[in-house]
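Researcher: Here's my situation. A collaborator sent me these components and asked whether they could plausibly form a single complex. I don't have experimental data yet, so a predicted model of the whole assembly would be a useful starting point for our discussion.
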Amino acid sequence: MPIVTIQVTREGTVPGADRTTAEQKEALYSGVSDLLREVLGKDPADTFVVFQEVELENWGRNGLSVPAYRRATSAATSG
Amino acid sequence: MPIVTIQVTREGTVPGADRTTAEQKEALYSGVSDLLREVLGKDPADTFVVFQEVELENWGRNGLSVPAYRRATSAATSG
Amino acid sequence: MPIVTIQVTREGTVPGADRTTAEQKEALYSGVSDLLREVLGKDPADTFVVFQEVELENWGRNGLSVPAYRRATSAATSG
Amino acid sequence: MPIVTIQVTREGTVPGADRTTAEQKEALYSGVSDLLREVLGKDPADTFVVFQEVELENWGRNGLSVPAYRRATSAATSG
Amino acid sequence: MPIVTIQVTREGTVPGADRTTAEQKEALYSGVSDLLREVLGKDPADTFVVFQEVELENWGRNGLSVPAYRRATSAATSG
Amino acid sequence: MPIVTIQVTREGTVPGADRTTAEQKEALYSGVSDLLREVLGKDPADTFVVFQEVELENWGRNGLSVPAYRRATSAATSG
């Protein structure tokens, strides 16, 4: 009866999407369940996966929000 | 000073509701606090309860999102 | 399919115990499941409860660890 | 590579705001990263901070939702 | 920069083990990172996975601790 | 009434320590409370901080456990 929580920033990773698509979520649920079945023998019927998308402004890294972090990182690399 | 986190899928469980109602949440907060006071002697004033409703599409079970899981389950039982 | 996480400090609340007893945990699991069934109609068989005991030194309040907080509080009240 | 999760009720704490402002979040991310660097020597570039605002109605204390708790508390103090 | 938390009961799932082995954990970390790279294009170097094993007595289902739940379930099926 | 959860790998960051020391934890609790008071005006008496140390083997990055990740990283840099 595993519980897997996936936290990612809310953004699109395929053209036209501004967040994770329903298809991508289905791929994550099946991938996680398969992995726990194969590695630990866990029954997918008892495997719960909770998917949490976090607004970019609500995720911090390197002392900055992700938007500010990305601006600083790209400025540094194109500096 | 307990912290209790309740995660449920976002759906109505009483007629006309599409999510947990304010009354239901109050019943959960008082029920959880009473339980921790009765079983562990914890002071309700120091008992925090965080209630998280998760979109159906953001909860996976049996390798599927909950909507897909429920379609498959009902198809199997009415098969 | 609710997930309820209960976090408490690791300490005994009945004579002779230095942590939550097995009986207390059973009472918590049944109390939480009953509550979610009564309030939200959730099936206990699909209700997961995760119980986490946190060492006193690993819980902070009022800018202090719980042991330090309790020493300060009792000193203040007996001051 | 610390992960710090900050959960607060969704409300404004500066004039005109009904929630935590972007500036306040930036101050939290930099404050948390500085603290972990100073105390534990952790690299801010590997320090993730997840900020979660919880609706007042979704946070319980003393057996009540926060709005009900605050009404009861203020009634008691002005009683 | 995803964060994935995996919670399972503390038990062995291979002969001779009473908990998840180091090899199984490595398989989980690589499987989760591969999945997030393939589905969401996430960089494994920024993907954190936290693995939490929970004592059987600290996990509840159907209003019982997992040990009690398993005794009741096996009694019912062999009834 | 904020809840702040700090997750770090279980290791010493000062000479002679194999984990976070009590003094370091006190510094974290007071630093977090001060920060939330200064930035959001939160009362330290209602600010809970939960500190979680995770065994190195139970933390994954780049598809590897942290020990394996660090071996690979140091081999690459000294390659």
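Model: Some features of this prediction you could bring to your collaborator: Chain F has a mean pLDDT of 97. The first strand of chain F starts at residue 3 and ends at 9.
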